[in-house]
Amino acid sequence: MSGFRVRMADWEREREAMRAIRTPVFIQEQQVPQQIEWDEMDPLCVHALAVDADGTPIGTGRLAPDGKIGRMAVLEGWRGKGVGAAILDFLVASAQERGIKQCRLHAQCHAMDFYLQHGFEADGGEFMEAGMPHRRMHRDL
After folding, report:
1. Please, are residues 127 and 133 in contact by the beta-carbon 8 Å criterion?
2. What is the pTM of this model?
3. Under CATH, what is the fold of the domain 4-100?
4. 70 close to 28: Cβ distance less than 8 angstroms
């Protein structure tokens, strides 16, 4: 992991940093409707924030109290550099620290290989969420 680090972020204090990642990735690139991107779960979640060497936010993800990982997003210029893997590892470790026995997520179908490489298994068929095909995945901890 070079040129960036992942740390826990406080939603109340750092929500704009996470919005600065999720807005271009989900709302602009992937056309996720704004009204479903921001939900009542954000204040309840553990948030991971990846920042570059200068402290600029470059990626984020969240862990819900029930073990669901979501809102994984990395800015385009940082993709393919291990940022997503570091965020996912951080969230899984956070789940383990909290005694969560299984992490779940809804993977965009094009990203399934990424999650498979990190120990997640697919279960169930393909379904549409936010206008994109997804599959449910889980990882026992």
Report:
1. yes
2. 0.95
3. Aminopeptidase (3.40.630)
4. no
